[in-house]
Amino acid sequence: MKIMYIHGFGSKFDPNSAKIKSLKRLGDVVGMNLDYTQSPDSILHSLELFAQNNSVDLFVGTSLGAWYASQLSWMTGFPFIAINPAINPQESLRKYEGNGVDYDGKEYTLSVDVINEYDKFHSSDGLVLLDDGDEVFDSSKTAEKCGLPCVRFPMGSHRFDHMNEALPY
After folding, report:
1. What's the pLDDT score for residue 123?
2. In this structure, how many other beta carbons lie within 10 angstroms of the beta carbon of residue 46?
3. pLDDT at position 169
């Protein structure tokens, strides 16, 4: 199986991360670094081409990456796993509007125009994994609003601390 991992806002694809290492038990994991200051349509186009070129079978995304995984699943028909997903990026990205610094110390500028281009989360062929200790998104509200089967884990964080336990699902 070929898995495409899509990182969250302000992050990057790190093949040595604990999540990626866990996913590698299921198959080959590929990914790319994304500039979330670009328009969602542009990012989706890049992700779709990358998925086609890499013969991807499953999309796995975290936070904003989970929103993209849901969109790609809806577009392609392939399943997805959303980890602590951003189900309403127009709302959740507001706190990052303007100038900021990502987790690697790289400066960015996120415009209100880009934020306004985001649509709601697509409920298609997917599974949602939630850590109840997520400090960014309320897992109860996410479970209630996402419209998909959810597996919730006690405690944890937005980074998702239960990847190994989640793999049997």
Report:
1. 75
2. 14
3. 58
Largest Cα span, the chain: 40
Judge whether residue 146 has pLDDT over 90. no
Total residue count of the chain as it appears in this document: 169
**Does pTM top 0.90 for this prediction?**
yes
Residue 115: pLDDT band by 50, 70, 90 thresholds?
very high
The torsion angle over the Cα atoms of residues 74, 77, 79 and 80, rounded to 10 degrees, is -30
The residues near 65 (Cβ < 8 Å, ≥ 6 apart) are 5, 6, 7, 8, 11, 34
Tokens of 5: 């991992």
Nearest to 110 by CA among 10, 8, 6, 5: 10
3-state secondary structure the chain: CEEEEECCCCCCCCCCCHHHHHHCCCCEEECCCCCCCCCHHHHHHHHHHHHHHCCCCEEEEECHHHHHHHHHHHHHCCCEEEECCCCCHHHHHHHHCEEEECCCCCEEEECHHHHHCCCCCCCCCEEEEEECCCCCCCHHHHHHHCCCCEEEECCCCCCCCCHHHHCCC
CA end-to-end span of the chain: 16
HSE at residue 16, side-chain half, CA atoms within 13 A, is: 0
